[in-house]
Amino acid sequence: MAFLLGCGVLALLAFPHWRERVRAAWSSWSQGSARRGRQWGRQVQSGRDAVVGGMLGQVQAAQTWWQSRWMWAVGSLLLLLAPVLMVLGWSLQGPRALDGFDDRVDPGNRQVAHLLAGEQLVPPPPLPPAVFTTAEVEIVRPMLSSADRRWDLMDPGFVQRVLAVFKIMKEEHGYEMALLEGYRSPERQAMLAAKGSNVTMAGAWQSYHQYGLAVDCAFYKDGKLVISEKDPWAMRGYELYGQVAEQVGLTWGGRWQMMDLGHVEWRKPAAKAAIRAAGNR
Q1: pTM of model > 0.70
Q2: Most buried pick, 15, 69, 167, 249, via CB within 10 A?
């Protein structure tokens, strides 16, 4: 092998034109190799770009898919939570609508004790039965002619609070109050509930009326009952009535979602349990 290499070197030294041919061949091979190297580099780069582009496309597609899924998930969650949030918002605005029984403890109020101190207030004389049977009254308050208006069927402490409201409304605000209904039997409550939610939403034993702890009232003016909510004078009276009732520790129906402007009730502590215990004796 070494001998052949030596002969080749001597031949190149002895014949210069062979050196030129070898130089030209080497130059051609070098240029071709460089060109092939550049082409291979471009192919490699193109391959890399394609791979990177494909990966980026897959990442973007995945991001788009997750974004769409996330938006659908959030939208579905909001739709599911909307009724819950609505009910929660309504519950925060006030007590349950219309006659709902709530046995929460009465917070107590020094002003109540002050207003109720002294002589026992006496119920006013009953109004003529005819004032409860007019067509105008029947439209607003169905079955009012058969309602019970006996003060002695109601809780004595509650009666004193209601009479205190009547007294303040007349002496300080010039409104004469009229009792529309006090105690209500469970049978009558069921009959009223059957007439629809525009009359009452409470069934039998679901209203404070059944426990002698609720009244419905209106105004008595010029020999007639004024119950209309379209009368500005009456609406002003209902506002004052609600304020005074709350001052003596009563709950006013005008604060409810389904307003009952003439209704007030006393959420007497443990009233429900006490009445049930008395009925089981």
Answers
A1: no
A2: 249
Contact 151, 182 (CB under 8 A): yes
Query: In angstroms, rounded to a whole number, what is the distance separating the alpha carbons of residues 46 and 231?
Result: 86
How far apart, in whole angstroms, are the C-alpha atoms of residue 38 and residue 5?
33
Which residues face 179 on adjacent strands? 217
Distance, CA of 204 to CA of 191 (rounded, Å): 9
CA distance linking residue 9 with residue 52, whole number of Å: 51
* 8-state DSSP, 120: P
Q: 178, exposed or middle or buried, with CB in 10 Å at 0-12, 13-18, 19+?
A: buried
Distance (Å, whole) CA 183 – CA 243: 23
All residues at 6 or more sequence positions from 263 whose CB lies less than 8 Å from its CB, including other chains: 98, 99, 214, 215, 216, 217, 252, 253
Contact, 194 vs 159, CB < 8 A? no
- Written as tens digits, the pLDDT of the chain (281 aa) is 555 555 554 554 555 555 566 566 656 656 666 666 566 566 646 656 654 456 656 657 656 655 666 565 656 666 666 655 554 454 444 433 334 444 444 444 565 566 677 779 999 999 999 999 999 999 999 899 999 999 999 999 999 999 999 999 999 999 999 999 999 999 999 999 999 888 888 899 999 999 999 999 999 999 999 999 899 999 999 999 999 999 999 999 999 998 999 999 999 987 767 556 544 54
